[in-house]
Amino acid sequence: MHDISKMRAALLRWYDEQGRSLPWRVRPEDRAKGIIADPYAVWLSEVMSQQTTLVHAAPYWEKFLAAFPSVTDLANAERELVLSMWAGLGYYARARNLHKCAGVVRDDHGGVFPVDEKTLLGLPGIGPYTAATIAAICADEATNIVDGNVERVISRIFAYEVPLPKGRKGLRELAGTLVREDRPGDYGQALMDLGAGLCSRTSPQCGLCPWSQWCKAHACGEETLYPKKDKKKKTPIRRGYAYVLMCGNKILAEQRPDAGLLGGMLGVPTSPWGERPKDHSAAPLQRNWEKAGEIKHVFTHFELDLEVFMAQVEEMKEGIWVEDISGLPTVFRKVVECAHKKTGPAGPV
Ligand code: SF4
Questions:
Q1: 46 in catalytic set
Q2: 157 touches ligand 1 (CB under 6 Å)
Q3: Which atom of ligand 1 lies nearest, measured to the CA of 215?
Q4: Is the pLDDT of residue 347 over 60?
Q5: Does the Cβ of 14 fall within 6 Å of ligand 1?
Q6: Are residues 250 and 114 in the same domain?
Q7: Range of the domain at 322
Q8: What SS3 string covers the chain?
Q9: pLDDT tens, 3-44?
Q10: Residue where a domain stops, chosen among 225, 256, 276
Q11: Residues 130-139: pLDDT tens digits?
């Protein structure tokens, strides 16, 4: 039996004492003084930290806020600059949507970031989780915040048997039964902290958990059986060739089409990714390609296996030539590093 008021009180008490301090977070003691979180900063943090760790996302958040202190600054920035600053965070559709969303906030909301869930849901790239989070944290709206970590906690508390992804809707409804008007922002953040910390995927620390007495999975000693998941399909492998054309310290890059994977980002020329092509017709016009090695990269839905070829030219004809590869997505940085390993960064000698 779940006593919701007691559960909430226990979680909030734990959060007051042990919740994480994050650069974009306003702690309860400061909230009590009337300080409210900046929705622009919270939005950036949420978009950046999806699918990656906070430790990895935090430097990007700082870099973005320093370069674009307001949402209007972000909207006014060149999209290419935003995409190159995003490089390394993956999921590049997010960066494109980030820039698009900033433009809508500038043009349709006078540069003031909305904080109510309904309006937020109408913005590009903002889904139910991000809208609920911003509304709860920045406006104390009693929303239902459910991310992967919260799903894990709720599935364990209720020993929820329907496997994911089918069970997602039911888990959301169960999480909704715990939502109340009392300190919604702190409650949401407390729940996220619990999921990200104590209630970890493989080794939950139930002895320290404020909800252990209500947790059905813990009562049965079956914590790690939840959330139940459908059997994973084998990750498909795609193969292709990548071409690193060097001129001194520079390499030939090309902008990828907007639609599709890594859309709008700079990369090196490649063959299509699928079956390994029978020839090198996708290579830039250049003979004497030399094999540098192979790299692997894992995307959400497939693994990519690229054979890397390299060549050098004396002069840079047309095209985009880059020296600093930090603005390239990780997969292309791996490709270029593979070529550099063979030749040294200054090109073949
Ligand atoms: S008791 Fe254990 S399994 Fe249950 S919510 Fe707490 S940490 Fe997770």
A1: yes
A2: yes
A3: 4
A4: no
A5: no
A6: no
A7: 237-343
A8: CCCHHHHHHHHHHHHHHHCCCCCCCCCHHHHCCCCCCCHHHHHHHHHHHCCCCHHHHHHHHHHHHHHCCCHHHHHHCCHHHHHHHHCCCCCHHHHHHHHHHHHHHHHHCCCCCCCCHHHHHCCCCCCHHHHHHHHHHHHCCCCCCCCHHHHHHHHHHCCCCCCECCCHHHHHHHHHCCCCCCCHHHHHHHHHHHHHCCCCCCCCCHHHCCCHHHCHHHHCCCHHHCCCECCCCCCCEEEEEEEEEEECCEEEEEECCCCCCCCCCEECCECCCECCCCCCCCCCCCCCCEEEEEEEEECCCCEEEEEEEEEECCCCCCCEEECCHHHCCHHHHHHHHHHHHHHCCCCCC
A9: 999 999 999 999 999 999 998 999 999 988 889 899 999 999
A10: 225
A11: 999 999 999 9
